[in-house]
Design brief:
This protein is an alpha/beta fold. 40% of the residues lie in helices and 19% in strands. The protein has one domain: NAD(P)-binding Rossmann-like Domain (Rossmann fold), CATH 3.40.50.720. It contains seven helices and eleven strands. The longest helix is centred in the middle third of the chain and has 28 residues.
């Protein structure tokens, strides 16, 4: 990429899981907010559709569980835009909707690989980039979940990884302090995306007492707006953990 475009770009954000759902909404909000955005995900066609030919968007097909592909992602970002200011660590999967004793080892390992190991690999690559760029520093935002606080029934694999994301986020923030790198976590509940259909929330989500309950959702654009708020904070400020949910969802209280 020519130096003129690099100089014209105010800030650069890498978004994983960028082809759909929350990732796609964040891409759209970031481009509208003046960011250059590097879109990462496994489905190349969806990434290019999400980029939409925008001059400040770069689609890089990436499997976040593959360390070599993750390293190549950040090399492409720097080669194209000159630096990385923000990583939105968003790639993830729900995993098996099964009780602990029903989950296969293969399904468990696949969920951990994407949700936890993938987030670690991307954060590590981002930190290496942020340490050596000038000016040094940046921000990592990990997409947790309200499952990082309280699980749904039959969600052990997903819930465990999201609890682990909280530990990862805190560790990153501590390890990055001397280098101007901060880390925060956003825990989102029931934003309206296509992936939520896999939980059958509209038909009724399984509750702790075994009943089904139709739960409210909220627009994904509002979740993206919240991510962008975190990203836009000055380097002197960090939100360690932020919870945003659909108003009235059965999350706070007994169930």
């Amino acid at each position: 990429m020519n130096k003129e475009l690099q100089n014209a770009v105010a800030r650069v954000m890498v978004v994983t899981g960028a082809g759909s759902g929350i990732g796609l909404a964040v891409v759209q909000a970031a481009l509208a907010g003046g960011y250059a955005v590097v879109l990462a995900g496994r489905r190349e066609a969806e990434l290019h559709a999400a980029a939409g030919g925008h001059p400040r968007a770069l689609a890089v097909p990436t499997d976040v569980t593959d360390e070599g592909q993750v390293q190549a992602l950040f090399h492409r970002a720097v080669d194209h835009f000159g630096r990385v200011d923000v990583l939105f660590n968003n790639a993830g999967m729900f995993g098996p909707a099964q009780a602990v004793d029903e989950i296969s080892l293969a399904d468990w390992n696949a969920t951990v690989a994407v949700n936890l190991t993938g987030s670690m690999l991307c954060a590590a690559a981002a930190i290496r980039t942020m340490k050596k760029q000038h000016p040094r520093g940046g921000r990592i935002i990990n997409n947790g979940s309200i499952s990082a606080h309280s699980p749904r029934p039959k969600s052990a694999a997903y819930t465990v990884t999201k609890h682990a994301i909280t530990g990862l986020s805190k560790s990153i923030d501590l390890d990055g302090r001397d280098f101007g790198i901060s880390c925060g976590q956003i825990d989102i509940g029931n934003t309206a995306t296509s992936i939520m259909a896999t939980l059958d929330v509209a038909a009724g989500a399984l509750q702790a007492n075994g009943s089904l309950l139709v739960e409210p959702t909220f627009p994904v654009a509002d979740a993206a707006r919240t991510v962008l708020f975190m990203a836009d904070l000055p380097a002197s400020v960090n939100i360690g953990q932020l919870v945003v949910t659909a108003a009235g969802m059965p999350f706070i209280g007994r169930g």
